[in-house]
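Dear colleague,

Following up on yesterday's call, I've attached the two folding results inline so they're easy to grep. Please treat them as preliminary; we haven't cross-checked anything against experimental data yet. The first protein's sequence and structure tokens come first.
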Amino acid sequence: MKLRRFPLPEQVTPTPLASTDYLRIVTFNLHHGKPPSGWPDADLGGLVAPAKQHSTPRQWWAHFLASMFGPSTASARAVNAAGALEDTAAVLRELRPDIICLQEVDKGQRRSGYLPEAEFLANAIGMPYWRMTAAFAGAMSGLRRRPVHTNITRENGYGIAMLSRWPVKSWHVKRLGRARWSLQWGSGFWRGFSKGFLTGLKSLPAAMPGVRLIPGEMRVLQAALILTPFGTIAVGNTHLDTHRGTAQSQLRRAWRSVLELSRHSGVLTGDFNLYADDAAAALGLLDQTMRPSWHGATQSFPVKVPQKTFNQLLAAGWVPVAAPRALRLPVSNHLAVVYDLKPRPVTH
């Protein structure tokens, strides 16, 4: 499936930067604006209480109504969420980025104070060209669906977003599919029949409490042709699956799609959910002419002790000015990663 193109909003003249020696791209898994230490107000992540606490239908219904219509917790979360995003925007504004690629972005979700997070950050940072691409529409704690149009305007949803200081020539989107259903273990972990059939059969009941089937999450690629001082560049933003094989396949398709927009000046960044070596192995299956000329990565997850290089960047026609930098922001369990790039010199 080819990238779908969407109409443009009214254009705005960007504020020029003090220096145009390089293009600064920031990729950041927003984690729906949640602070690393958690929210100071009541937990609104789910509407259903644990079974042991609210075992009867009447108790569950009372908890449900309190969660849905309790004004104190809802208003407190809205205030705290707005404050956290304001603090985050202040740090990002100091970085003076050209392009910001965000993942795990909420729009109108209860857990994040019903804020339209992409729009909020774009206005707070002062980046006039932005768009959210929804992986799904609906409430996180209710029924969800794949939206007909990923650029949701009136309904709530969840997905990725791109913010730009420079005018956008065109917006594009491609659905990357989802992984298969997976089994999530609860209190224990079953090792199968590796130590014998009878041993495996006896250990199964102890591992069963809390076991549930988890559906794969829809993943999307958001791309834009951006008119920068260096010329038009194709920028892709994505958040790949947590299953390694699925993420590797999605990475190849996403990179090929970015190259379709501009083979000589393209960038793909985001949360790949892959170690850098796994991403390189996936890209190694591509034809030599389609492989990125530069692959950047640095440790950015988890926020307390960064060990995993999930927030990466692929580039064609661009080279780094400096090594990638990972910065801790007021929200998220990820670090933001700053990439400074310049066009690759043309060789004759």
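Below is the second protein, in the same order (sequence, then structure):
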Amino acid sequence: MSFNSATSKAKARATVTKLFEDVLPGTTLLPLKKVKVTDASAFALEARKHRQSKEEVRKKNKLVRARQNREINKRLEKDKKFQKLVRYNVIKSHKNGQAAAPEGEQKYLKKLIKKNSNALRRFADVNDPEIQEEIAELQKEIINMKNEKFDRAKDRKLDAKLLAFNEKIKSGLLTYPGLTPGLAPVGLDDESDEEEDDD
């Protein structure tokens, strides 16, 4: 029998020796030498040991993908929280500067207020007196903030209307008949002057 390599010859000899030892105890052909196993043959041996069906491979791949998806979702959630924090800080800085918030920020603030007020309502069923006090304080603070915002907006609108009216009068766009400076209104008699003369 011819062998392609010394390794295959050593493996065949080891197998025959093992067979003889099992069948005929106490007999050995040759003392067993340590056979060097190459990396490739070790890998092939491991692959044979761990042969898996297509279904097992599919399950493992599915588990690996699920784990990767969880990690990606965690990272995305962390990024989303960071973005929300940054956006909140920008809006907060605008509020502190008393600058008018852009349309997008106003929508975001309304959405945030609605979300937080719903969360407060959900927690309103708690029977703890300390939490009830905190909820009441937060509600008062929110109401005060809304009233303050409404009052400021109302004042700005009134100021803008008054300024626009005064500008129209100064430019001459608005005039009132009969109110000519230095002349009496049309249609009035001089009766009031006659009464003064009689006194």
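For the second protein, one point worth flagging: The helical segments are 6-23, 39-49, 54-96, 103-123, 129-171, 191-198.

Best wishes,
A.L.
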